[in-house]
Design brief:
Length: 505
């Protein structure tokens, strides 16, 4: 018997009760916890499946892992960090920053670890959520998911890959103790993760094969260390970090315009990438293989100084023939060529458009969220879904970003959820559920804004568009600042609201 099982009196024992349960302790879960605490809410808990906070920045510790958004912007507005070592800081520094924020805010006791969510079920009689994890049962009036869209590794649909005879590693599950020195390594994928891994692996591997299905656009990465004097300035002169953040933010906002597929702007940005390629790769055959055949911006525009040079090294082969299947320790290509490997690295991305957590959430009348979303995700204000009362989703539908800092988006969503929770908790609201009409209208508006953007019309296959319906569902199809303008302030108008007093009557 676990503590979750029935004690024989119709009531589970060992059930913990909270006003709010948050699931996930990455940037979004930490942000939610900070804002709940800062606003005087104590009766909440954050359930995390791993043994530490950090989310994707805890899990993605492959060699070379770093953020390609500048650190002073890729941090909380309420938690400036004068000590970032570089313009683009490495993974371990970002993870340390997250842990430091939790310590600084005095919220360590709000996180419970090793709590993998098995199910979250809406109880339509009690009007509360019951969340079952690998360790316990939690009942709460409100449920906030903060499980991220870059948290569950995606394995490619290649026959035999799971049975690869050598060592198989996904980029998000790197084994730091494994020594690649002198081994024959293959990397599948050429996205943001792969281009950071390849230059590091190339240095030690005996031979490296990079399996490229589509060539990415790679632009220069203007990285450098911050000097001690700069760090002192950031720490001592009020407003310096804010000013720098603002400069970085508005520069990035300018980059959204090209995503609307304005030909002159796309051409200008594409030229930056193609010039970078030409400057770093002199071999015309390799350059041709590395030249993308779709519009820039359709996939994430990558930043690297060391990716192309790594591909020109003697111990590296760029393989553009499609992979047919994996047999034992060999990767078999479509033309029958076999490549024997000791290690196969899958830098193949994440389950983003069909999030695994949605398969565990059951709302009104037994509706499972992933079933409701079987033709694609949608949510009102990117956070609320009909049939799922008292549930708020952080980093769910339409909340990814291709051109600016995702932390800005998370902060806006957290403000919205905080507004909703404050309205409900202080207004004696028992149940709050967005109307389907409002949700549908919201989704329709986003579809029309997405039409014609480079993500949809740029001639590539990307993880922003759901293959099940051809709709852009993982990314906000507009400026980041318009996300905040439209989605950060809670308004009860589109919600069906049930007050506790009315229920009791
Ligand atoms: P990704 O962008 O989804 O790239 C996956 C790669 O795997 C693509 O090159 C894809 O090829 C390839 N692939 C997938 N299935 C394949 C198959 N069956 N055969 C051959 N190739 C296959 O994944 P990611 O690089 O992990 O990046 C995901 C997201 O994480 C990024 O878009 C970004 O938001 C975030 N990220 C950010 C940073 C950062 O510095 N901020 C760093 C890493 C990741 P196709 O292109 O042909 O589909």
């Amino acid at each position: 018997m676990t503590q979750a099982q029935d004690a024989g009196m119709g009531m589970p024992f060992g059930v913990e009760r909270y006003d709010i349960v948050v699931v996930g302790a990455g940037f979004a879960g930490i942000n939610m916890a900070v804002m709940l605490k800062r606003n005087g809410y104590e009766n909440f808990v954050v359930l995390e499946r791993a043994d530490a906070v950090g989310g994707t920045w805890r899990d993605n510790h492959y060699p070379g892992a770093a953020c390609d958004v500048p650190s002073h912007l890729y941090s909380f507005s309420f938690g400036p960090n004068p000590n970032w070592s570089r313009v683009f800081s490495p993974q371990n520094e970002i993870w340390e920053y997250q842990k430091q924020v939790v310590r600084d805010e005095g919220i360590e006791d709000k996180f419970l670890f090793g709590q993998d969510l098995l199910s979250a079920t809406w109880d339509d009689e009690a009007h509360e959520w019951e969340s079952r994890t690998t360790k316990g049962v939690f009942r709460s009036r409100f449920l906030v998911t903060a499980t991220g869209n870059l948290s569950d590794p995606k394995y490619p649909d290649i026959e035999g890959i799971r049975d690869f005879g050598g060592v198989l590693m996904h980029s998000a599950a790197w084994d730091d103790d494994f020594d690649l020195t002198n081994l024959r390594v293959g990397v599948v994928g050429t996205g943001a993760s792969a281009i950071q891994i390849v230059p590091q692996v190339q240095k030690g591997a005996g031979h490296l094969t990079v399996f490229q299905r589509s060539a990415p656009y790679v632009t220069p990465r203007h990285d450098r260390k911050y000097t001690a004097a700069e760090k002192r300035l950031f720490a001592r002169v009020p407003g310096t970090i804010e000013e720098l953040r603002s400069e970085m933010f508005w520069y990035n906002e300018g980059r959204f315009i090209e995503r609307q597929a304005i030909p002159e702007l796309l051409e200008e940005t594409a030229n930056v990438a193609l010039d970078h390629l030409a400057a770093q790769v002199s071999d015309p055959r390799l350059r041709a293989q590395l030249t993308p055949d779709y519009q820039i911006g359709c996939k994430r525009i990558l930043k690297a100084q060391d990716y192309y040079p790594a591909l020109t090294q003697d111990n590296v082969a760029l393989e553009t023939r499609p992979i047919e299947r994996v047999e034992g320790s060999e990767v078999m290509l479509a033309d029958g060529t076999r490549i024997e490997l000791d290690v196969l690295v899958l830098a193949t991305g994440f389950e983003a458009s069909d999030p695994p957590v949605a398969h565990h959430i059951t709302g009104r009348s037994g509706v499972v969220l992933s079933d409701q979303w079987q033709t694609g995700m949608q949510a009102f204000a990117t956070t609320a879904v009909h049939n799922f009362p008292n549930l708020f989703i952080l980093k769910g539908p339409h909340s990814g970003l291709g051109h600016n800092s995702i932390i800005y988006i998370i902060e806006a969503q957290v403000d919205y959820v905080l507004g909703a929770l404050t309205y409900a908790l202080q207004g004696n609201v028992e149940m709050i559920e967005v109307s389907q009409a409002a949700e549908d209208e919201y989704a329709k508006d986003l579809d029309s804004r997405a039409a014609g953007t480079v993500w949809v019309a740029g001639g590539c296959v990307n993880w922003y568009v759901d293959p099940r319906n051809g709709r852009l569902t993982t990314v906000w199809p507009d400026f980041a600042h318009s996300f905040r303008d439209e989605n950060a302030t809670f308004d009860p108008a589109p919600y069906r609201i049930l007050h506790a007093a009315l229920v009791a009557v």
